[in-house]
Design brief:
Shape: flat
Strand content: under 5%
Helix content: over 70%
Oligomer: single chain
Distance between the termini: 62 Å
Largest sheet: none
Order of helices and strands: HHH
Length: 79
């Protein structure tokens, strides 16, 4: 089996040690889930006809819409 070395902050290491858990299986499962998620995203994206430019434009429209909705919520503007 291959080994993977990672660096984590000292405070996270102390928190992990507090539980006395063998973290290898848990981290291996997290990596497997992330690979499944990325594989699914890759599958969906491969079928998409949306270009990167289209995605950026859509993201900008969504951001503007959310910002406007938030502005209205904060100011009480019901227009």
């Amino acid at each position: 089996m291959a080994e993977l070395k990672i660096k984590i902050p000292e405070d996270l290491k102390r928190k992990m040690e507090k539980f006395g858990v063998d973290w290898s299986p848990a981290i291996r499962r997290m990596i497997e889930r992330e690979i499944q998620n990325l594989t699914e995203i890759e599958r969906i994206v491969s079928k998409s006809k949306m270009t990167e430019e289209d995605a950026l434009e859509l993201g900008e429209k969504i951001s503007k819409s959310i910002a406007e909705r938030f502005r209205k919520h904060v100011t009480g503007d019901r227009r």
